[in-house]
Amino acid sequence: MARINLLPHRAATRKQRERDFFVQLAITAAAAIGFMVLWNIWMGMRVDNQNERNAYLQDQIKQVDARLTKINDLENVRAQLLARKQIIEQLQANRSQMVHLFDELVKTVPGSARLTSIKQAGDQMTLGGVAQSNASVAQYMRNIEASPWMGPTDLSKTENSHDATRMPYSFGLTVALQRPKQDDGSGPGASPAASSSTGSSMNAPVNTTAPQTNQAMPTTNSQAPNPSGAPVKGGAKS
């Protein structure tokens, strides 16, 4: 005889499946919630770490900016000191320039001319004066150009006042200043005493040679025959 199960086994199986589904869903939801919590904690730790690094970098940047500010201040001070040093070197180099210029002005002015004004602007000097003629002005310009401390000369004006004075011509000159070449070892900063001593030592052989020539001339004249037959005083004895 066949046995027939009349119990609702299908409903029981469906309920069991539903319970398993909800259990799996709860486990999945719990796992997802746990993962999200852990992910938030990990991201928070990374954000905190990055904020600490950013704060450290900001602090280092501030320190570097402070050092750069000090360096810029030191560079400005260095530039100012270098500018002062250059000015001092220029003053040291030009210390004796005015002495030599006035000496050369005295030497180059001819007797037929006279200066009335002197003005210097940088490496140029403007001279004004009076002269007897244009030839005197030309001679003065040649003397200036031959000077080691003054260079090319430009004639700005020359005019005749047609008055009864001894120097009726007025002139204006623009002179370019220069430095002598350092061939003889004397630099632009050499003292006037050294220059004068050098000049005196250079002129010494000329002064020594001149008396020897003057002494040799009377000896030659004393040995020359006397056409008149008169005895010569101080002559050599025969």
TrEMBL record:
Residues 47-94 form a coiled coil. GO terms for biological process: type IV pilus assembly; type IV pilus-dependent motility. The keyword Plastid does not apply. Pfam families: PilN (PF05137). Residues 202-226 have a biased composition (Polar residues). The chain crosses the membrane at residues 21-42. The keyword Transferase does not apply. Residues 189-201 have a biased composition (Low complexity). Residues 179-238 are annotated as: Disordered. InterPro entries: Extracell_DNA_Util/SecSys_Comp, PilN. Keywords: Coiled coil, Membrane, Transmembrane, Transmembrane helix. PANTHER family: DNA UTILIZATION PROTEIN HOFN, TYPE IV PILUS INNER MEMBRANE COMPONENT PILN. This is Fimbrial assembly protein.
